[in-house]
Design brief:
Elements lengths: L1 H12 L9 H7 L8 E8 L2 E7 L6 H13 L9 E6 L6 E10 L13 E7 L3 H5 L2 H9 L13 H10 L1 H5 L2 H9 L3 H9 L4 E4 L3 H14 L9 H14 L3 E4 L6 E3 L5 H4 L2 H9 L3 H29 L3 H14 L2 H11 L4 H21 L1
Parallel strand pairs: 6-7
Antiparallel strand pairs: 1-2, 1-5, 3-4, 4-5, 7-8
Helix pairs in contact: 8-10, 9-10, 11-16, 13-14, 14-15, 14-16, 15-17, 16-17
């Protein structure tokens, strides 16, 4: 059991050695923090596209316009929903990931039939696979343009729209990289805080850093991904607040000082994978590693739930449960979530109490 468990864990950490992100893609990010990235915005009226602004080379923009027109004619761009694909353009990268989104104009009484009119926003950089990892962030970033696009004839193009579009990569993709660079090997404390619903407070920092850390914690959290409902997640948070203090990141020092830190072997084992990806300056690889971290945590949670159900009827299953918790290195988090999820099941709670006592004894024996 331990052999397969270790192998599975190593596979999830070793994403950087698989075919997903090797060859030219990793090589392209290894020497610099930011790859070449581009933006384009079109006015869309009926069936025609009118260029408003673009950072693409002049020879590449008509190629993109042809591609977008083809997508629109096929109904492949739905209002407010981003579409990601690979496009071939006359740029150094030749083939590049392209995120496109149609922002439809709000209908006014003067133009009740203005369906389909609006703006098409395009972000280009990295690969299709890489951009797909940040689809939610890109969707949210594009929605942030809505108010700026209401100005007649976009008189605010140079003061608002263009600067906003130019920052898409820094704001939508690079936040995980910045957090890993900020805390370095202390990233395990943030991972543990995310899994255990511990609040993280950032002090003596700018607003961007606070937002980056908040987004990292949200991205690393399992809320909405595991089989917990809202009530269970709330119970987990309540348990966490009863037993732990907030994790505090004080940015008045360099590097930042972290207090009330808690981690475990499971989170510690992921440190090197994050540091390696950050050293390569590859935000897409960092996001993939974060997704693998969450997937492994969910798999372990499901395994524990299965063992707890079996342990209600078998002492041997209880023994296997103890072995699993000892081997996974994430027992404190798993039991916290299990107790919250089984709060209305007395027999399961009794099993969990036994397991908590077992982990406590093991911890004291190793101290």
């Amino acid at each position: 059991m331990f052999t397969s468990q270790t192998s599975s864990f190593q596979d999830s950490i070793d994403v950087e050695e698989r075919d997903d992100f090797d060859s030219e893609e990793i090589a392209g990010y290894s020497q610099k923090i930011q790859l070449n990235c581009y933006y384009t915005i079109y006015l869309y009226q009926g069936t025609s596209l009118t260029l408003i602004d673009s950072s693409l080379p002049s020879e590449a923009e008509p190629e993109l316009r042809t591609y977008i027109s083809r997508r629109l004619s096929k109904g492949a761009l739905l209002g407010g929903m981003g579409n990601i694909a690979t496009v071939e353009l006359s740029i150094p990268e030749e083939a590049v990931g392209c995120y496109c989104c149609l922002l439809e104009q709000e209908r006014s009484p003067e133009q009740p039939d203005a369906d389909g009119n609006g703006y098409v926003i395009c972000f280009m950089g990295g690969s299709e696979k890489g951009l797909n990892l940040f689809r939610l962030e890109l969707d949210k970033y594009v929605q942030g343009l809505h108010s700026s696009l209401q100005t007649p004839e976009l008189q605010n193009l140079e003061t608002e729209v263009r600067p906003y579009l130019s920052r898409w990569y820094e704001e939508s993709v690079m936040h995980i990289y910045r957090v890993v660079q900020l805390v370095q090997s202390n990233i395990s404390f943030l991972l543990h805080a995310a899994l255990s619903h511990t609040h993280v407070e950032v002090i003596s920092s700018d607003e961007r850093t606070k937002a980056d850390v908040s987004r990292f914690i949200k991205a690393a959290s399992l809320q909405g991904l595991s089989q917990q409902d809202t009530t269970t997640a709330s119970l987990c948070k309540a348990i966490s607040e009863d037993t732990q203090s907030d994790l505090v990141i004080d940015c008045s020092t360099s590097p930042p000082t972290l207090s009330n830190t808690v981690s475990n072997r499971f989170c510690d084992d992921w440190i090197q994978a994050f540091l390696n990806a950050a050293e390569r300056c590859n935000p897409f690889l960092l996001r993939q590693i974060l997704e693998n971290f969450k997937l492994k945590a969910i798999q372990d949670m499901n395994s524990l739930k299965r063992f707890v159900r079996q342990a209600e009827m078998s002492h041997y299953a209880l023994f296997r449960c103890c072995q699993f918790l000892q081997g996974c290195g994430n027992g404190d988090v798993l039991l916290q979530n299990a107790r919250a999820e089984h709060s209305d099941l007395p027999e399961a709670c009794s099993i969990i109490t036994v397991l908590e006592e077992f982990l406590k004894e093991q911890s004291q024996a190793q101290a």
